[in-house]
Amino acid sequence: MNQRELQNISDFFILGKILDFEKAGGHGNENFFISTNSGNYLIKIVREQYGVKEKNQEQTFLKHLKENNFPVEP
Fold first, then answer.
1. Residue-by-residue pLDDT tens, the chain, 74 positions
2. How far apart are CA 13 and CA 7, in angstroms?
3. Are 23 and 32 in contact (CB under 8 A)?
């Protein structure tokens, strides 16, 4: 994933112009910390090789973030 691809994602979610980015840890996914002119974000790219169990865990994780008032775009 390069900066242009990350910027396309940022544009889609209206996060702003990427000023800086850093690859974050991850096993099956690709995760990036990005800084934009409107704030700091984590972009998590979920890979297709996941099965039902992993997708359910991902949904639980997103639900937990939302319940704790952490802004999330599904």
1. 899 999 999 999 999 999 999 998 777 778 899 999 999 998 988 776 667 777 788 788 888 888 888 877 65
2. 10
3. yes
pLDDT for 74: 58
The answer to whether 25 touches 31, Cβ cutoff 8 Å, is yes
What DSSP element (H or E) covers 43? strand 39-45
Q: What are the tokens at 40?
A: 């700091």
Q: How far apart are CA 20 and CA 72, in angstroms?
A: 20
**Geometric angle at alpha carbon 66, from 11 and 25, rounded to 5°:** 65
Please give the structure tokens belonging to residue 23: 């690859």
Count the residues in the chain: 74
